[in-house]
Amino acid sequence: MLGRPYHRTESDTMPHTVPPRPKRPRPLPPLRRSDRTAALAGSALAAVLLTGCATGPERSTADGPGNADTVSAVTDSAPAPGAGIEWRDCTEAELLPPPLEGEERPEVEIPEEMRCSEVAIPVDHDAPGGRTTSLQVAILPHTGEGESRGAVLYVAGGPASPGIPDLPQELETVAELREHFDFVAWNPRGVMGETAEFLPADVCGDQGPGYVDVATEEEFDAVMAEHRAVMEECRDRDPEMFDNMDTFQHVGDMESIRVALGEERLNLYAQSHGGVRATAYADLYPERLESVVLDSVVDNVSDPELREIAFTTAMETRFQDFARWCADSEECALHGQDVTERWQELLTGAAEEPLPADGIAYGRAELSLMGGNLVRNAFSWPLFSEAIESALENGDSTRFHETVGASFYTPNVVAADICADGGPIEDFAGYQEYTELTVGLSENLGHGRALHRLPCAAWPHEGVNPPGPIGTEGLPPFLILASELEFSYAAAMTGEIPGSVAVEVEGTGHGLYFFESGDCVVGHVHRYFVDGVLPEEQAFCATD
């Protein structure tokens, strides 16, 4: 079913309680700092040496060796910034994905000062002498007097979000920062450029395991088999690339970029899921970091159960905010009604008989997950209220499907990344436990919290980067930004990384330095990067 929920023909409900099971010990990744550092450091240097000096490298592919227009990295005992990269004018290929068949690529305005290139990488950083490929990189050069103080490397989120297309939109945001630093971004493996050709969008981006509720162990096993089959369709296109999409491979790419830039130390600005890569890089290469800003990031260093408790509780609070808005605003399609009661009526009915939409059907857990997506931001509250009203009146979930259903799956290229790291659910009993926990915290939204974690239960290998503390010796203190909704993540991370400070930002925004760009947030970021000054504890930024 390629990323879409199946239709259940029998009425079944998610159990609210299950007998407690002993907790499993958290598996350690097979390689952490000492072993991985040696392996990845070797791969970064090998990528340099494989390609020679500023020439297109020989690379082996699935079809055999061939030439690539890839600019190599060069190392030296005292390298000049960018010594291993030949910058050129950027093209639309770095800023836009290939158009769909029959469509033309839209025009895009490329900033005159922006430069682009490629950096050679091994497909597998644990086997640096093997097949190589390249990543697209871009730079907004330093504009101040004298030499640049180094590079700020933008670690984009997603996962599977390209970094380069964000640069033209953020020229004003980073203008003051560029008086002191170069600002660098790249398009991660599997997203755009040559590596994306290996994992094409039709089977790796537009397909993937769907968010499908299961009520029995037999259903769980059947859905996991379906998920594995869907992921295998993508893997068949390039097994080696698909098998090397985990966080440690992205960290190896970051180190290859650092070497190519000729920087002894990096400044990182990481956003959303980019925080997982940034903290893993910090774990492996603390001596290579000058400063780190984490913005709206996924927390992969603190206790995952406490993290889920805090976030689900915050989401229930958000639902109550939505209910109060409905009571006060005529924009709400349910104005004058008991919103919580109507929502529970819908969920209970969907648990007994999933609601159809476009040939499929959504049950209680699916609607709960969709509701969580819609309740997060106030601008989507009118849509949420209309979807509830429509479902109750018409007995179908068409409005939910039209609003959220198109993205109701984990793209295969994302699954290859996050599932390789490891997930919190391993079997049906684990799914029940997770659901019991979240429903106990939020009767309104808790039924769907485990659902978006479920696809990774189909991953056939042990995760390499499960949540857990990172080494902190030699690390700089981090600046961590988070909205009120996500602040529990930031607060937990400051407890794991000594000296770090979290800034709470009013509202529910995500991507606060780039996409929100308020003066308060931008000021904190620039003072930290430029002057090394962190804000006071419990700093708060109101929305501009």
From TrEMBL:
A GO MF label: catalytic activity
Stretches for region Disordered: 1-34, 55-84
Record-annotated AB hydrolase-1 domain positions: 173-334
Xref: SUPFAM superfamilies: alpha/beta-Hydrolases
One Pfam family in the UniProt entry: Abhydrolase_1
Coiled coil: none
Annotated ranges, domain Peptidase S33 tripeptidyl aminopeptidase-like C-terminal: 446-541
Domain of life: Bacteria
Protein name (database record): TAP-like protein
